[in-house]
Amino acid sequence: MDDQMHTLAESGQAPREDTAMISREVWPVTYPRGEVRASDFRVVEVEVRRPRPGEVLVRNTWTSVDAALRLRLRETAPPGYFPAFPLEEPMDGIMTVGEVVESRADGFSPGDMVWHASGWRDYAVVEAGRQALGGVGTLTKLDVDVAPPQAHLGALGANGLTAYAGLFHAAGLRDGDVVWVSAAAGAVGSLAAQMAKIRGHRVIGSAGSDEKVRYLLEELGLDAAFNYKRGPLPDLLREAAPDGIDVYFDNVGGDHLEAALGALRRSGRVAICGMISEYAAKEPPHGPGNLMLAVTKGLTIRGFRASGHTRLLPEMRRQVGAWVREGRLHCRETIVDGLPQAPLALAGLLRGDNTGKTLVRIDGGTHRENTVD
């Protein structure tokens, strides 16, 4: 992109009619086998058309990186999930935030900060009102006085909605419940754990490193936490919750779900929002061998997705926004700078290198972590 076009976009001005705007886009060129690699993608420069009536042109500033993207980087996505990303095409259906630079849609003006679902690219032409990602990614104007724009990809966006809906609706959190959250240092897990603590519950978190365990205990203030790599999972959970648990918020599946079934008390509940242990597994991972406990203990196991709870978005954003303003909910960010680094950011997340929300700042060139309070 030349300097003139970059300046026009950053100033919120539309390009001249006779000027072509060039945008970088990350396209998959092959479906990963095992670990995601940079060679599975390429960065393509494309010409961006002007918006038509009912559309806006957005200069993307931050784009999301989520473990569940791995489910779409395969020939066929799981039944009932969002479709697989086609090869050699832009990756539609990735949350991003950016600034409107040209609008032909009612309710949107140049300078507005918005979220939408055309991420992993510099610019996007987005149709206002068109549903994306089950409604979670529909073009929406953001209140950036509450929190920085990128927070709307995490605590105030789909990750926050997943945590909120999972705890308070899928799991039906009740007074006195003891809660275990797996992958508790991740984008969704860290929010779910904090929400349960804010509501006065005893919360146990698990993660994959001693550093993350310290984060859970010292920064998030959980009651107990453990590194699941430090021994047999049922023993570690029993030590953290000797009297058992009432709610398991599952981000991992596999042996974590099996351990939870053993630790859950009568009428316990499981809210499953993800199973990262399966996303890139070359062989089917070990699954629960004790499902009969769901019968004998009267357990409820419920899978859910944020897109099934979009009606809760306004409520969640009000409540979580208040917790952020009050300093009660903390949002750690792992930031990778530069659009071409998005595939490596995804690979790092799947390896467990991140803490909190993983984001790509589209213009940049370094890697760092940041905390939004």
UniProtKB/TrEMBL annotation:
Q: Does the keyword Oxidoreductase apply?
A: yes
Q: A Pfam family for this UniProt protein?
A: ADH_N_2
What's the domain of life for this entry?
A: Bacteria
Which InterPro entries does the UniProt entry name for this protein?
ADH-like_C, ADH_N_2, ER, GroES-like_sf, MDR_fam, NAD(P)-bd_dom_sf
Q: What residue range is the signal peptide?
A: none
| Chain positions covered by the region annotation Disordered | 1-20
Q: What protein name applies here?
A: NADP-dependent oxidoreductase
This chain's source organism reads Streptomyces flaveus
Top-down, what is the taxonomic lineage of the species of origin? Answer: Bacteria, Bacillati, Actinomycetota, Actinomycetes, Kitasatosporales
